[in-house]
Amino acid sequence: MKNIQIYQADKYSTTAYTKVEENIYRGRNPYYNGNVWEQDELYVTSLTFEQEPELGEGDLPTHISKYPLEGILDMFYASVTDFYEELNARSKDTCYRELGAFEVEDIRKLLGIVGKHVYQKKVYAKNLSEEELESYKDMTEEEMVKKRFISYKTVIE
Fold first, then answer.
1. Taking 80 as the threshold, does the pLDDT of residue 133 lie above it?
2. 13-53 pLDDT, tens per residue?
3. Phi-psi category of 53—alpha, beta or left, where left has phi over 0 and alpha has psi -120 to 50?
4. Whole-angstrom Cα distance, residue 7 to residue 21?
5. Are 26 and 83 in contact (CB under 8 A)?
């Protein structure tokens, strides 16, 4: 993901949202289903970014790849709260997502990726036996991941 920027959605100027601070709003949790242990409100922000197909990411805004977005969600305890399907369908390169978290501090930290480059880095397992190293040569990347010979780390630079 590159060219990560803040997107000011028009919906944030409606009564459904309360501005908490610059680029952070409080609104209804779209996943709330009335359970007592769930929170009915979230802190949200919206971002735009471009994918990098050469790094294994999607090639269209209508096909946003799982990674590195999933890594970002995990790092900042966030979830996608609006997919902006119409905006993504009209766009050639720019992807749109609203991200939400239960804690305002998580959204503050998430906003730290604006202007940065986020990607998945391949990490090889250490301490492989000679036998594992030999079998490693004939495996597909998917098989290597399954056997935990390689994994991926989300990098923010």
1. no
2. 999 999 999 999 999 999 998 887 788 999 999 999 999 99
3. alpha
4. 15
5. no
Q: Percent of the chain having pLDDT more than 90?
A: 75
Burial of residue 140 (number of CB atoms within 10 Å: 0-12, 13-18, 19+): exposed
In three-state form (DSSP H/G/I as H, E/B as E, the rest C), the secondary structure along 76-120 is CCCEEEECCHHHHHHCCCEEEEEEEECCHHHHHHHHHHCCCCEEE
Beta carbons of 148 and 139 less than 8 angstroms apart: no
The structure tokens listed for 45 are 């922000």
Which residue type does 151 have?
S
Count of Cβ atoms closer than 10 Å to residue 1 Cβ = 26
Q: How far is CA 38 from CA 16, 106, 127, 139, in A?
A: 19, 17, 42, 43
Please indicate, yes or no, whether the overall pTM of this predicted structure exceeds 0.85: yes
Burial per residue of 11-32, b for 16 or more beta-carbon CB atoms within 10 angstroms, e otherwise = ebeeeeeeebeebbbbbebeee
H/E element, 44: strand 41-50
